[in-house]
Write a structure and sequence with these properties.
By secondary structure, the protein is mainly α. The chain has helices at residues 2-81, 84-110, 120-135, 139-142. The termini are far apart. The relative contact order is 0.07.
């Protein structure tokens, strides 16, 4: 009986150590798996953000083309309907709108998403301001 008890007391620490070792290995594997999952999630988020940027860029390019067409229509309308005093003022405002649109086009083409993904809120605000200025071109005269 004493031998069996001694055997179990000698075996117990070995079993405990073996169980702890297995748990440590399992924890390490679990940690590795979580890290891989997080890396995958980060890559997915980056790809989603890049796709959103590409979609926004395509929309912005389309809006810039529409702005060019609307500015050309404003030029024709202002020349056809304005008296001599207003024509000069309209020509100056149209030149300003064309310059703002060209600046936005330049910013859009020069932007490198991989290098710098900030500044889009300012670009969106500038785009909205230009659209408002085009839409309200003749409203200043109505006041």
């Amino acid at each position: 009986m004493k031998t069996i008890r001694s055997f179990f007391f000698a075996l117990a620490p070995i079993l405990v150590l073996a169980a702890c070792q297995e748990t440590a290995e399992q924890r390490m594997q679990d940690a590795d798996e979580r890290v891989r999952k997080e890396q995958h999630d980060v890559e997915n988020a980056k790809e989603k953000a890049r796709q959103e940027y590409l979609d926004f860029k395509a929309d912005a390019e389309e809006q810039i083309r529409e702005n060019e067409n609307e500015i050309a229509a404003l030029r024709e309308k202002s020349l056809a309907t304005a008296d001599a005093g207003k024509k000069e003022r309209y020509a100056k405002r149209i030149a300003e709108l064309e310059q703002k649109n060209a600046d936005l086009k330049g910013k859009l083409n020069a932007y490198d998403y991989d290098r710098d993904n900030s500044g889009w809120e300012e670009f969106k605000k500038d785009m909205n301001d230009l659209e408002t200025a085009i839409r309200d071109f003749f409203k200043d005269d109505a006041k």
